[in-house]
Write a structure and sequence with these properties.
- The protein is an all-alpha fold.
- Helices cover 81% and strands 0% of the residues.
């Protein structure tokens, strides 16, 4: 174990709560603020699309087709954050405070570099991205406007995610609830104002939805910077210390790159699925976009749970506390399963009411009700697989999560969707989701046993 060093204040701090607080209480206190903030995020995702759907169905389809790029931005930001989270929490567990500060300062530089890449994509690639998916001139125009704005001004979301990961890594998840919640609420308020032109402002349409999104992200970024500089005493952010350190960057991306690739695969899957669905109609693609908004009510809280779990597992792995690691994993699996059961109930009992939130036509209702009911079958296994993926990352084996994700989304889901589309039509495409989740749980169980035998059991 690394030799104990002083923190940024020049003193040896008391033991972090992640090594002392009872696990159920710790997981609850770490995860609850994240779950609440993720629920607010899910609400803003849904409200955003509800307002856009009031323009017309083509506007809703355009925003749905832009989702792979937005997901890719989140993948790069969050994937880098996973690497930061794992390294920083493990360094805290080992009481290596010099590495803690190097990790924090390098994370800011990596965030800036990531933003610049997507700003260029927004400037020069937006129209080409939509032209590859549709020839409808209205969808093409709506989509280009939306994607250009969210990419060129994406510095807000990149820095917001980075600041939140630093807070998570040191156990200060309550402040994340404030940053994410405030950003999402501002987005919800600004959506109708900018889309429809209230209070004397110009009517911006789809561009207004994008502007509201980035405005909320920038406010959340500012709050995150404030909380890290004023409330987070375990790290020290300094411009003078912001120099790329090769070993730190390598350690961050050792976990972060598999995580980025794993989440980016979701963008590839969504792009491919949209192409398959557009063979039938733009309404089918709109249904898929609506599904992703609705499922966030159940997946986002599960991700919030994971965000609270990862630093606990990483910290106690650094501290070599086997009992606390296994207890945290078991509790997380149980909580995730309950969240998935709520999703199954909602999609089977009130699918029509959920779809009507988006001004659904009769055609969208017919396609969507069947889609929601069939896809929800996969939720039986989804919660466990999500938790396992985060456990792999927390213990430095992000490549296992990557393998599971590649097999699930690219090797099983997309081929199954295409075969079912060709053989049995649109109604059969949705069965590719339960089929893919079965493959995912088999692989997750295999890798969990392997990592338990190699890393957890010997502690």
């Amino acid at each position: 174990m690394a030799k104990e060093t002083l923190n940024s204040t020049g003193t040896t701090p008391q033991e972090n709560k992640m090594g002392t607080m009872p696990v159920p209480k710790l997981l609850f206190t770490m995860s609850l603020p994240m779950i609440i903030s993720m629920l607010v995020q899910a609400l803003y995702n849904v409200v955003d699309s509800i307002f856009v759907s009031q323009i017309n169905e083509n506007a809703l389809t355009a925003v749905s087709l832009a989702f792979p790029i937005q997901n890719l931005m989140i993948a790069v930001a969050s994937g880098t954050g996973v690497g930061v989270n794992a390294l920083l929490s493990r360094s805290l567990g080992e009481k290596n405070y010099d590495r803690v500060n190097k990790t924090a300062n390098n994370s800011v530089l990596l965030t800036i570099a990531s933003y610049l890449v997507f700003a260029l994509i927004g400037l020069f690639g937006s129209r080409a991205f939509f032209a590859a998916q549709t020839s409808d001139p209205q969808i093409l125009e709506y989509g280009t406007q939306y994607m250009s704005i969210v990419c060129i001004l994406s510095f807000g979301v990149f820095m917001q995610v980075n600041m939140e990961r630093l807070l998570q890594s040191t156990g200060l998840t309550f402040y994340n609830m404030i940053t994410q919640g405030t950003g999402a609420i501002i987005n919800i308020i600004m959506d109708p104002i900018l889309i429809f032109g209230y209070f004397g402002l110009p009517k911006m349409g789809v561009a207004g939805a994008a502007a509201a999104t980035v405005f909320g992200q920038i406010v959340a970024m500012a709050l995150g910077i404030y909380f890290n500089s004023r409330k987070n005493t375990e790290i020290h952010l300094s411009f003078r210390q912001m120099r790329f350190d090769g070993k730190t960057v390598k350690d961050i991306y050792g976990v972060g790159i598999p995580s980025i690739l794993m989440m980016s695969i979701g963008s590839v899957m969504t792009f491919g699925m949209n192409k398959i669905l557009l063979m039938f109609s733009s309404t089918a693609a709109a249904v898929f976009g609506v599904y992703f908004k609705l499922q966030s009510f159940f997946f986002m809280p599960t991700f919030g749970l994971n965000n609270g779990m990862v630093p606990i597992v990483a910290y106690n792995y650094g501290a070599r506390n086997k009992k606390r690691i296994t207890h945290t994993i078991k509790l997380s699996c149980g909580a995730a399963f309950v969240m998935m059961l709520l999703g199954i109930a909602a999609f089977n009992l009130i699918p029509d009411k959920l779809l009507m939130l988006f001004n659904a036509s009769d055609d969208m209702l017919e396609i969507g009700c069947n889609a929601l009911r069939v896809i929800s079958i996969s939720y039986i296994f989804a919660g466990f697989c999500i938790v396992m993926g985060s456990v792999f990352q927390a213990l430095g084996n992000g490549v296992y999560s990557l393998i599971v994700s590649v097999c699930r989304q690219l090797c099983v889901l997309l081929p199954a969707a295409y075969i079912l589309a060709m053989a049995a039509g649109l109604h059969a495409v949705w069965w590719s989701f339960p089929i893919a989740e079965i493959a995912s749980i088999v692989l997750s169980l295999f890798f969990m046993k392997r990592i338990y035998d190699q890393k957890i059991k010997p502690l």
